[in-house]
Design a protein that fits this description.
By secondary structure, the chain is α/β, with parallel strands linked by helices. It has a single domain, classed as Alpha/Beta hydrolase fold, catalytic domain (Rossmann fold). The protein is 31% helix and 25% strand. It is built from nine helices and 15 strands. It is globular, with a radius of gyration of 19 Å. The chain starts with 9 loop residues before the first strand and ends with a helix.
Amino acid sequence: MVADFPEPLFVQSIPGSSRPASVYLAETLDGLYTPYALRTPSDEGEFPFVFLAYGNGGGGVEWLRSRLRTHAYVMDRLLDAGYACAWGRYRTEVELGFHRGGRLVIDRRQGMDLMNRAPLEYEDELAILRHVANHPNVVADRLGHVGVSHAGEMLFKLASQYPGVVRAGVACEPANHEFLDLTPDDTVSVNPQTHLRNIENMKMHDTARVRARVNVPLALERMSTIDIPLLVMGREEDDLQGIFRLSYELLAECGKDATWVTWNHPLHGYIFPVVDSEGQLSVDDVQKHAIEQIIDFLNEHL
């Protein structure tokens, strides 16, 4: 390891694998730290890198420990294909923080940084990507991102506001209601104690219905700065399939390099097969083929 790259916080073995995970801390834009768990095909050589993310944030290092135990399958497939990869953890989502907060602006006051708002969860991803780009086993300009659900929306936010950081991205079931400025219907309620929205039961399967409820000009403006190829993956019976599909359609309408595929599977986040509490891996042909499709996409663009 080069002298200026830090030693890992700890190294965690992976059951059934000779390739452990090294957990690092990346400094965030506001000077705190966010963890990620990196695995490489070998200790020798340089490899393109794929960032893996799922859902909302929180949980920190313990979440990573658990994820490495239960969701190593997709990492193993990427390692076999010649990719370094990492699960990352980031701060919790802020309700409409992206929509209302605007772009992060950093100035100086009394010799220290001054910001117009706090960094958001996708900017912790940015910190991890910038950090891992300096790792001696990672090719700095060949970084990819695979995000599921809220993390799929985070990929859209990252690519929109920080172009050039990743070379290609996969957004599986991207919950893009904030990015698209979706006006919810009466399936969304507000918690009277917190005054925050409950969107768990939102029904947005029909693409035309979703299009009628989103701010199309704003969505296209946000997409205009995206400069990477994106693979958008849907799930046939998901209540938010209309959001997933419209995210692709709007990318295509503004001339972006976008590909759409959809699979029928009962698991939300089907591209991340899971080991159950008894240590048994549950993975079927749909998941295998979907992951193969992701690797083919990454091979083409990374």
